[in-house]
């Protein structure tokens, strides 16, 4: 007679997990848990990848849409722009990643000075970031514009233009401008013109020379999430990061 402790077989002749000794059963359970964890990790990774792809696609569409919307308002020829009181010059790092002058920065100043010499604007509003005494975009812009022949009394500075949206909002709220020419590279102008016109500012863009070879792939790619962020800011009516005392350009002394 078979012992009562003998194992019962399954239909295919193998032993069920209930018939396994305690150590074998624990090992099998651990393997099941490990498999569940791996499946969960795989599902999370796939979900993250899907979200990243979706965001990348939306960002690309946003940038293309902004370029399409702004195309009729942007030119590289000052003669084709209307005469306005003020041009908003958008800031950039004065020094490039390789340690020399930032070409984006220099080309914007070239375009702004050409616009002023063409008599299309009376004043330039240099808007950029003042992170520290050693990093002062608006002051570097002022120095560069004066070197290009623009009188210092024609240059106003906004030290709180941390983002493009900040520069646009503060041009309206602090400096009282409702009609502007914005100066930057074409990819940047698409976003700036969209933001300005969404805020009720009649804006046009003077396209500065673009850089022949971007400093890095990140320099090129960052414009796409920035385009998507522009829509986000408009939808949520994101305010400027800093407020301030109003400045009347042409009446108050240059900042």
Topology:
Elements: H1 22-70, E1 74-75, E2 86-90, H2 103-117, E3 123-127, E4 130-132, E5 135-136, H3 137-147, E6 155-158, H4 164-173, E7 179-184, H5 186-198, E8 202-207, H6 217-221, H7 223-236
TL;DR?
By secondary structure, this protein is α/β, with parallel strands linked by helices.
Mean pLDDT: 87
Number of helices: 7
Structural class: alpha/beta
* H-E string: HEEHEEEHEHEHEHH
Would you mind describing this structure in some detail?
Strands 1-8-7-2-3-6 form a 6-stranded parallel β-sheet, sandwiched between helices. Strand 4 (130-132) and strand 5 form a beta hairpin. Helix content is 46%, strand content 13%. It is elongated, with a radius of gyration of 30 Å. It is an alpha/beta fold. The N and C termini lie far apart (105 Å). Helix 1 (22-70) packs across helix 5 (186-198), helix 1 (22-70) crosses helix 7 and helix 5 runs parallel beside helix 7. It is built from 7 helices and 8 strands. Mean pLDDT is 87; it is low at 1-17.
Tags for this model:
255 residues, alpha/beta, 6-stranded parallel sheet, two-stranded antiparallel sheet, 7 helices, 8 strands, elongated, disordered N terminus
């Amino acid at each position: 007679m078979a012992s009562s402790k003998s194992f019962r077989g399954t239909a295919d002749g193998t032993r069920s997990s209930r018939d396994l000794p305690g150590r074998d059963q624990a090992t099998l359970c651990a393997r099941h848990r490990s498999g569940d964890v791996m499946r969960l990790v795989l599902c999370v990774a796939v979900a993250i990848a899907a979200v990243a792809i979706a965001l990348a696609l939306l960002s690309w569409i946003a940038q293309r849409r902004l370029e399409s919307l702004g195309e009729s308002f942007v030119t590289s020829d000052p003669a084709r722009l209307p005469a306005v009181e003020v041009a908003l010059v958008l800031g950039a790092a004065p020094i490039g990643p390789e340690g020399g002058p930032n070409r984006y920065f220099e080309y914007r100043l070239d375009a702004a000075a050409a616009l002023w010499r063409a008599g299309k604007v009376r004043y330039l509003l240099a808007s950029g970031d003042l992170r520290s005494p050693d990093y002062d975009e608006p002051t570097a812009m002022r120095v560069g514009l004066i070197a290009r022949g623009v009188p210092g009394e024609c240059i106003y500075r906004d030290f709180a233009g941390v983002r493009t949206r900040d520069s646009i909002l503060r041009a309206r709220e602090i400096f009282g401008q409702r009609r502007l020419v914005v100066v930057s590279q074409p990819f940047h102008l698409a976003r700036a013109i969209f933001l300005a016109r969404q805020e009720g500012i009649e804006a046009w863009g003077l396209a500065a020379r673009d850089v022949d070879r971007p400093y890095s792939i990140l320099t090129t790619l960052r414009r796409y999430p920035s385009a998507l962020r522009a829509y986000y800011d408009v939808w949520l009516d994101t305010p400027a990061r800093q407020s301030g005392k109003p400045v009347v350009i042409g009446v108050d002394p240059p900042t």
